[in-house]
Amino acid sequence: MNVLIASPLRSYTGASMVAADGATVGAVLADLDRRYPGIRFRMVDEQDRIRRHVRLFVNGAPTFDLSAPLSPADEICIVQALSGG
Questions:
Q1: 85 is a domain residue
Q2: pTM recorded for the entire structure
């Protein structure tokens, strides 16, 4: 499936869109981490929760559940909030 990568994470992938495999959101993030070591930690914390400054969308709908099921035709969009003043 296609995964759209947020700008702050492109230093890992070198691209704005990559392909990944997995039956759940968590499995896709694990697949991304195998291909691009360290990227998952930027999105998921030590308690296995999506970090508060990261938003994941599956086919345009927000999800906060790493166990959410996916199909091969789905598209995931990773958005990362920027902060500062």
A1: no
A2: 0.91
